Amino acid sequence: MSITKQVTALAVGLGLVTLSACGSQDGGSGSPTASKTVTLVSHDSWAVSKGVLAAFEKQSGYKVRVLKDGDAGQAVNKAILTKDNPQGDVLFGVDNTLLSRALDNGLFQSYEVKDADAILPAYRTDAGKHRVTPIDTGDICVNYDKAWFSEHKLTPPASFDDLVKPAYKNLLVTENASTSSPGLGFLLGSAAKYGDEGWAGYWTKLKANGVKVVDGWEQAYNEEFSGSAGGKKAKADRPLVVSYASSPPAEVIFADPKPTAAPTGVATGTCFRQVEYAGLLSNARNSAGGKALLDFLVGKSFQEDMPLNMFVYPVREGAKVPAEFTEYGPQAKDPETMDPAKIAEHRDQWVKSWTSLVLK
Q: pLDDT tens digit string along 269-285?
């Protein structure tokens, strides 16, 4: 799953054409439609404003088709399995927790986007090879239900350390690290915080303190978390959830009527920085169209359109961020981070150990 999963339902009806079969529907390389259609393969949370997409199509001459392929992990795995006969031309949504898997399997060909210098240096990666381009970023963090903590006269947790204290016993719900992107991000955040030798001990304490694990973000946030609109309807009883720093502004923007303040907050000492990338698939049928689409994804128009569609932050220098983000969901000032090479080295073993420790 990706950072943008929290608004999956809102992506429906935004005028995108979602395909259910492989790129062969566009015709082979000799097809008269092949050069006019470019296919984007993405996780389920892709969304863009109609006007922004239409402007790109008019300017470039390409018609964009979108193939949504499940959560981020599922989309990457399917792209690897079909890399010799890819479903599309560009893959969007592989994040830093899964990047090495895509690169090690030769999923992408090299292409440096036209505005590469406009991408903030902190998010650039794969130097010299240009197999992937950073598109957006966000923070995986524990969110808390403000009303619940006020009613119980309890200060919300602010850090990883706080979550294992007795005062927060049986309050936290998180996602399965083996099936969920935010779940994996939270595990990596704890590994970054406590190190190779300390993260397992931390999770032993967290398990003893009553952490609840569910399969994915949708269930955790909208069914188990008491602070979300969905959780309130479901009479959820967990006031802490692993979600995103951008979840509080989403709760404000989509509420009717809109509250004057976000009903949820972020424990800023629990955040892990996530970055999403896109790349030109190695055997893309329409590589020219794919390159044009990648240029579009880092262009100012798309970068400024992203926040209120996919609830992520732009990576382009100078791109404007909505006021709701700065007011209700600012980026963490000092999030946990981890080099993609270290993630590649330890991810599978960490997930295996986490599963044995927490789920059994």
A: 999 999 999 999 999 99
How many angstroms separate the CA atoms of 24 and 284, rounded? 11
Helices (H), 237-339: 247-253, 287-297, 300-305, 307-310, 323-328
Confidence of residue 26 (pLDDT cuts 50, 70, 90): very low
Please give the distance of CA 96 from its chain centroid, rounded to a whole number: 10
Among residues 153, 314, 168, which one has the least CA distance to residue 240?
Answer: 168
Paired residues of 281 in beta bridges: 108
Task: Check pLDDT > 60 for residue 34.
Answer: no
d(CA 186, CA 242) in angstroms, rounded, equals 7
**Can you give the length of the chain in residues?**
360
Residue 216's nearest CA partner among 242, 193, 195 is 242
Mean pLDDT of the chain: 89
For residue 208, give Cα distances in angstroms to 18, 201, 202, 236. 44, 11, 10, 21
State which amino acid sits at residue 69.
D
Which residues, at least 6 apart from 161, have a Cβ–Cβ distance to it below 8 Å? 269
SS3 state at 7: helix
**Cβ neighbours of residue 33 under 8 Å, at least 6 residues apart?**
26, 27
pLDDT tens per residue, range 321-332: 999 998 988 889
DSSP alpha helix (H) spans, the chain: 8-11, 50-60, 72-81, 99-104, 146-151, 160-163, 181-208, 217-219, 229-233, 247-253, 287-297, 300-305, 307-310, 323-328, 340-358
Two structure tokens written together for 241: 């959830």
Complete DSSP assignment for 182-238: HHHHHHHHHHHHHHHHHHHHHHHHHHHTT-EEESSHHHIIIIIBTTSHHHHHTT--B
3-class SS at 273? Answer: strand
